[in-house]
């Protein structure tokens, strides 16, 4: 059973993060896994051979997390997304995405605690992960806010397309890559727009960090590669031949992941985005004054104020 008192949880957390630091030391001093051998032999996806993708059908349970939904769509966890054991998730997350054992122990335990369930004994449906302001939060990069669309089971494709179109990086083969700066800038846009359109909007610091953590998975596990990210976000499908871009022997630790999260969150500047929008509106009005009549300018100024 998950440790229930604050003191015992604190002790457990210290133990987990000490373990995590040790795993990162092992990562530093040991060779990386070979390309093509990141997913362990005997596990789903070994050698890039993922189980058949089947899109969810009516009655299946899905959630706000594309990575978990993809695991269900490929049958790595129950295809209907129901009655999943918390205790089976650490191994499956580690084998599928190469998150470190410390990482995959901590996150399902945290989810069980938030849902007031036992990590060792209980099960969950994917939809339960959508507990608002638990793991699910406003200003998501892939979903509309719960206050706008109650179900978080399906992605909002226009958001995803806009995010991917903002990719400014390139790999050595010229393929498009998302960068931390791209994600920070789009996160700022989403926060400003969600705050303006959702009357029930809320986003405390903890949930800002959850949002930046979720987005940082694009940069780490998926290496920022737009083609792969599009598949996992739009179809919630693991690409054929794919393996985690994290080749470290013990997987992605918190010690390596948290600096990426911090960089993304630190780069989110809502004031800068608002100033950019205001400047663009002012430039549009100025152009109309040159090209059009006063009626057009007045209409544009009214629209900008809205």
From TrEMBL:
Domain Heme haloperoxidase family profile, chain residue ranges per copy: 49-259
Keyword terms: Heme, Iron, Metal-binding, Oxidoreductase, Peroxidase
Keyword Oxidoreductase applies: yes
Signal peptide limits: none
Keyword Heme on entry: yes
One Pfam family per UniProt: Peroxidase_2
Required co-factors: heme b
SUPFAM superfamilies: Cloroperoxidase (SSF47571)
Top-level taxon in the UniProt lineage: Eukaryota
MF terms (GO), sorted A to Z: metal ion binding; peroxidase activity
Family named by the database record: Belongs to the chloroperoxidase family.
Protein's name in the database: Heme haloperoxidase family profile domain-containing protein
Source species of the chain: Hebeloma cylindrosporum
